[in-house]
Design brief:
By secondary structure, this protein is mainly alpha-helical. It has a domain at 121-184 and 329-396. It has 21 helices and two strands. A hairpin with a 4-residue loop joins strand 1 (25-31) and strand 2 (36-43). Helix 13 packs antiparallel against helix 14. The longest helix has 29 residues, at 121-149. The protein is globular.
Length: 400
């Protein structure tokens, strides 16, 4: 689905649209080819100050954990477990959640179970090897197309947006390709562990209900087991037209789960329903809180949004958003760092651009392409033709 194609390294982000001020009530009209739909999130708690407690913050964090554990138990997949641990469970900003001994103790118990099953050193290397080969093959194909059909450096970076994605999203949409190359001893999760996590998942669902009562939040903020199953079916649906209908049907049940609006928006974008996609991304922003230290879904929304923007007229937004992508990417996210760097270079912010590219070299996450890009920045010779050639050379060299 388009989720994979759009969840890639992007040139920049429309921060004003993605991260604009939150509204006390989120209601907007969305136009598609068939009808006009009014999406309403209902009254939202006001954004809290530094001294205040934001109840929606805790609800969002709990929902993120609920969905992560449910995904692990339904797939029975250690790779899924490892990715949910690294991207969500171990990435939650627990310090921003109101003190609740029951929830904190439950979270610690979940972490104990999950941590014991994460991929180990050699297993991680095996997975990363398959991932990197898949991504480089995709990038090499796009680079060849760029050379054949021309375009400027802006279009070059934009084209890369459709060719690469983080392993968290790539595995979600290409799982069978990975399993054909990785034996079951790597991705298979023991039944006992699945049962343990399923029990903890049920406790999380009960905790979300208690939290609603304690903080007087609307029941629609709580994600139920049934809705989770339906949501997963929509995400896994290969027919984007059917998936769009499924997401539209479920939208009222995911008022406090921002990733829903990423998946809904990217599906709409795949079908060229750009107005609907924009509205979904705005809904994501409306309910978004800094629940995660680095938010992979926020980055993907930003990547999708940039494809709907005109770099000639929205460069200030692009500059702010490129920096935002970098802030939500780790030193290992070399694609994000590289594209954020190139984007800022195009906008004249050379110093910050170099910092993002230097991350890749400092941590050894990617060397060949990053070295060539950094050299081009320093010598002020970074052009579309040179970058395209460098990309193909780096990807065919077999190195990192």
């Amino acid at each position: 689905m388009f989720h994979k194609g759009l969840s890639i390294v992007v040139l920049s982000v429309f921060l004003f649209g993605c991260l604009g001020p939150l509204l006390p009530r989120a209601t907007a009209e969305v136009m598609d080819e068939d009808n006009k739909v009014t999406l309403s999130l209902g009254p939202l708690p006001p954004r809290a100050t530094a001294e205040e407690y934001d109840p929606l913050h805790t609800m969002l964090a709990l929902n993120m954990a609920v969905v992560s554990i449910q995904r692990i138990t339904t797939t029975g997949d250690r790779i899924v477990l490892d990715q949910e641990y690294r991207n969500i469970l171990n990435n939650l900003s627990i310090g921003n959640i109101k003190g609740d001994d029951e929830i904190i103790d439950l979270y610690k118990e979940i972490m104990d179970v999950v941590t014991s099953e994460t991929l180990r050193g050699e297993e991680t290397k095996r997975f990363n090897k398959v991932y990197e080969r898949n991504i480089k093959n995709s990038m090499l194909k796009d680079a060849s197309g760029i050379r054949a059909y021309g375009g400027n450096l802006w279009s070059f970076v934009g084209s890369l947006v459709t060719s690469a994605t983080s392993s968290y999203f790539d595995y979600r949409f290409s799982k069978e390709e990975y399993k054909n190359e990785l034996d079951e001893s790597l991705w298979g999760l023991e039944k006992e562990r699945i049962l343990d996590l399923n029990d903890l998942h049920k406790q999380l669902l009960r905790s979300s209900w208690k939290l609603l009562r304690r903080d007087n939040l609307p029941d629609k903020y709580r994600i139920t087991e049934e809705n989770l199953n339906l949501f997963n079916r929509a995400v896994e649906e290969q027919d984007p037209k059917k998936a769009l209908i499924m997401f539209k049907t479920l939208q009222d049940d995911f008022r406090a789960y921002p990733p829903f609006w990423y998946f809904y928006g990217s599906t709409a974008q795949e079908l060229h329903k750009d107005d609907l996609a924009r509205q979904c991304y705005e809904k994501f922003t409306t309910i978004h809180r800094k629940v995660l230290r680095r938010d992979p879904f926020l980055v993907e929304v930003c990547k999708n949004r940039i494809l709907l923007l005109d770099p000639k007229t929205q460069q200030e937004e692009i500059r702010r958003c490129a920096k935002h992508i970098g802030a939500n990417s780790s030193p290992q996210d070399w694609l994000n760092n590289l594209v954020a760097g190139v984007q800022l270079y195009l906008l004249g912010d050379t110093e910050q651009a170099r910092k993002y590219v230097e991350r890749n070299l400092a941590f050894g996450s990617e060397r060949d392409l990053s070295s060539l890009v950094l050299e081009g920045m320093e010598k002020k010779t970074l052009r579309k033709e040179a970058l395209s050639e460098a990309l193909q050379k780096a990807l065919t060299s077999g190195g990192r």
